[in-house]
Amino acid sequence: MRDMIRAEWTKFRTVRGWVVGMVLAAVVVMMFGLFPGVQGNCGRHGTGSECVLPVGPEGGEVSDSFMFAHQPLTGDGTLTVRVADLTGVLLGDPDRAGLAPWTKAGLIVKDGTKPGSAYAAVMVTGGHGVRMQHNFAHDRAGRAGSWLRLTRAGQTVTGASSADGVTWTTVDSVRMTLPATVELGMFVASPQYAEVMASSLGSVGASGGPSRATALFDHVSRDGTWTGTPVGGPGNAEPGQRGGLLPTGDGFTVTGTGDIAPAVAGAAGIGTTVTQTLIGTFAGLILVVVVATMSVTAEYRRGLIRTTVTASPRRGRVLAAKALVLGAVTFVVGLVAAAVVVLGGQQLLRNAGTYLHPASTATELRLIVGTATLLAVSAVLGLALGVLLRRGTTAVTAAIVTIVLPYLLAMTVLPTEAARWLLRVTPAAAFAVQQSATEYAQVDNLYTPIEGYFPLAPWAGLAVLTGWTALALALAAHRLRRRDA
Amino acid sequence: MTALRAEWTKFRTSPGTIGLLLVLVATTVAVSAAAAAAITCRGDCEIDPARVSLTGVRLGQAVVAILAVLMIGTEYGTGMIRTTLTAVPRRWTVLLAKSAVLVAVVAVAATVAVLGSLLVGRELLPAGQTFSWTAAPVLRAMIGSVVYLVLVALLGLGVATAVRNAAAAIGLVLGLLYLFPILALSVSDPTWIRRLEKVGPMTAGLGVQATKGLEDLAIGPWRGIGVLGAWALAALVVGGVLLRRRDA
Amino acid sequence: MTDATIVVDGLRKRFGANTALDGMSFTVRPGQVTGFLGPNGAGKSTTMRVILALDSADAGTALIGGRPYRSLRRPLRHVGSLLDAGALQPGRTARDHLLWIAYSQGLGARRVDEVIGQAGLGSVARRRAGGFSLGMRQRLGIATALLGDPAAVLLDEPFNGMDPEGIIWMRGFLRALAAEGRAVLVSSHLMAELQDTADRVVIAGRGRVIADRSVAELLTAASDGRVTVRSTAATAAGVLAAAGATATPTGAGQLTVSGLTASEVVGALTAGGVPFSEVSAHRATLEDAYLELTRDAVEFRAEVTR
Q1: Which residues in chain B are closer than 8 Å to A428, comparing Cβ atoms?
Q2: Domain span at residue C41?
Q3: Does pLDDT of B214 surpass 90?
Q4: How does pLDDT run across C86-109, given as a tens digit for each residue?
Q5: Alpha carbon distances (Å) from A105 to A88, A100, A124, A128, B176
Q6: Contacting subunits of A (3+ beta carbon pairs below 8 A)
Q7: Of C220, C242, C264, which residue is a domain's last?
Q8: How far is B91 from chain A (nearest CA, A)?
Q9: What local confidence, expressed as pLDDT, does residue B90 receive?
Q10: CATH number for the domain including C256?
């Protein structure tokens, strides 16, 4: 087997066209990745003026902008209110009355008013009932009711809800690190809303925009001065629409916008993800598949396959050696190209003023290795199809069409459900491995493939492609063994 | 004229030709049908029914490209190109004869595929999402799709003549077709999206399938077909010049 | 060197309605050049492909030193072969082509350079094989066959496309291989190419062996004892008939005699006082013998039609 691999490697490296093709594949991946061609909005008002997102207490970037009516609380304490009314406006063309599903109004205890600081909050929402959330990533549903209570006792914060202000049900009780003095009060946040719609082109589009909400709080259990502070950056609304705090009767009217949640890319967030740097993968993929397929169909065309199987009569092993060599070569080429664009492309995108969600090292690693694997497995698929179909043209087309076309159809013409189905069952599912955005239940966003959200987990998507490739390879081995060469 | 007859005979008698034409019709209609069946919303979504029914053209064009590339690619693969050029030494004549045969054959097969797709699409689309056969935009989408496939064929022939290797040629053609929409998908700058959609042979050319919302197109329907035509012409000219200049 | 005897036994193979092999059996022994002759379509190439496990036979076996080809671990060290000299990747150099094959057999670059020298390819080894003439491709094919220093060598129509100089080189080369104790099987559809080269010939027709003899035997059989006599004497025929021979006039002053050997003819003529200018044993060429044997087996015979 070692001899065979060495032979196949020699065979591959001694045809200049194939080597050039592989190098070219790496070059196009890098070219597309390092040439963003997109000028972002960030940095136009000075370096990093509006594109630095706060980082939450558990790491990870967050949206943290809302209207906060607060007073300091030292030591333990409790605040009870009734959310008497919650209304909102979806800003757009034209503005419409309505609440975004994750419009939030309620009570919050927070480590100061700095965005990204630790907090715990209990709230009523536009479409998801009563929730208790803390430190951006955690979310728990509670029993419905317009009465809310938030209690701090040491490092424990407990949220409760009630329909009548008499009978209380605990929503959640969380332990967290808070300083002795915290800010306690009422808040309103209303996030970017997003709606999926089919556009007139038959393609799936999205519409959305900022939203604003107003809540009336009464039966406020604590006296004292409430200070109205808009927490966070400019948020999602124009400066004039940031809302405010108005004493109303025996309560307060708080108007706010923004969101307290993990930051997401796409329609409901800002900027893009590191996945953007890998858009050249498609061009590289086509080249890799052409080379891989040709490396075997050329043998058929010239009759060289007979020399090959005369030298190594165990044909299954010949195929294995070929697959191994091609897979390894492509993997290395893909690894280099992906590493260059993932590591270098991010900086370039940022320099071009595009907001880029930072990716953890683990994510970067998965993207690099995953992309290399995606290319390598596609090459092996091309090889297997080459053995099965024996003609370069049909084999190349079959490989490209099965990998690329489902992706394209899913992204352009098909409705979301059909698109998700395609990206679960076809080889195109493998592109999930390039996904770098996380889906959060507590953030409304277009979690559609077009925004970089795939229906399968990264490695599961790659497994689909690998499965198809294994099937094609098995059929190819069978065919190679059974047929006269 | 004799060159034309020779090319037609060669085309008709090469194995797999009829099969590919059947595959062209079958895949186009099948994908169109699947896309139409995937539309479940009734009145509440805004789709372009005729365009959805023509989704299969996006796959069909790949089959058309194979057909076109093989037309000259196999001759280079087997060395038969030398026989061809010995029989008809005027090389532009050879290329024109091949183009003429290809145009005729693809036009017929594409017409069947497009009509089949619309017919099936009309059946499968949900009630309320339908189109009239005689409406001018639907006719334009119909005729435009046929012209689109014919031009893709010429693009394929031109590229294959220039590249002389069937597998590399098909990779190049599919890359040209599919890469532009994918790039347009992944950039976020609207000006760049429109720019890419304007110059891409597939994105510009398929605009002809739109029967509504024309104002959203990056480029007008017939002008889009013109862009694809320019690509095809450029490929043919490059192919022809190289064929003329190079040793066979 | 390993056991090199190739034993083909009862091979049968059909391609659809065509019977390609119909009980093909013969043995290729070490130290001999075995010519494998037969008209086109007699099953020569198919037999070689079955020996090399390229095609599978419907019935029968083909063994090299008692083992099927597929079971050989490094087969090119047992059997070297040249089937189709055109089977090359045109973009690869001759040396690189040999190199990958060498690696597949666990051999190194040194062996490659050796066979390049042996096949006389030294000056073109680093050129792309796509630009080779047919003769050079044949030499590259020979180099490939020799790469593993095999005990048996199979060559399918190696004289095709060779110039006269190349043919002479090839003949000497085949003799040398046999002299080294290798079993050599060479197919050809032209007897003349093998006349002075082969020790033994296997003549195939319609998928089976028609004759399997040494070249000497074949020649004797083909000559069937006829003697040509040149004599202007009218008595010659009578004298020979009296001696028990059958004499037929085959031209002006020429008789073809059968039933007596050349020396008996000379004796009879001398005893009878018949003057003659020449007595020669009819020496058949291998070509005649071959045509005689394959007359019925030629698959596509050119018909003379009006």
Answers
A1: none
A2: 6-78+150-220
A3: no
A4: 788 888 889 999 988 888 888 888
A5: 11, 12, 6, 12, 51
A6: B, C
A7: C220
A8: 24
A9: 81
A10: 3.30.70
